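Lab notebook, bench 4. The sequencing result for the construct came back, and we need a structural model before the next group meeting so we can plan mutations. Quick request posted to the team channel:

Model the 3D structure of this chain.
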Amino acid sequence: MTDLPPNKAPTIRVTAMPADANPYGDIFGGWLMGQMDLAAGSVASRRSGGRAVTIAADAMKFHMPVVVGDEVSVYADLIAVGRTSMTIEVEAWRRARHSNDSCKVTQARFIFVAVGDDRKPRPVPPETN
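Done. Here's the predicted structure in token form:
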């Protein structure tokens, strides 16, 4: 890919380890999706001021594999806010352990709902900035 990673700090960054891979050294798609969900959840919790839960992951697309030892940077951006829901666009980028070159490996859109202590939907408060 010729894209450049976003010009900002990633929401999370992690190194892919052997326990996250199949016998061929390729990282499980579920592990990568879990990292993306963690990043999106962080954005959703901050924006909603509390607990938020994943209700959907749309448009998941794997562009390239991630292998053991790769550094994975996950970028998450809030793109829409409804009454109780938030839509977060997420990209995962890999950088080989001994390289400076990065490439986008996965992208998806996650939908979260803000929930209260009773685990029922609650309104997302207005933005305070």
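The mean pLDDT is 94.
Will bring this to the meeting.
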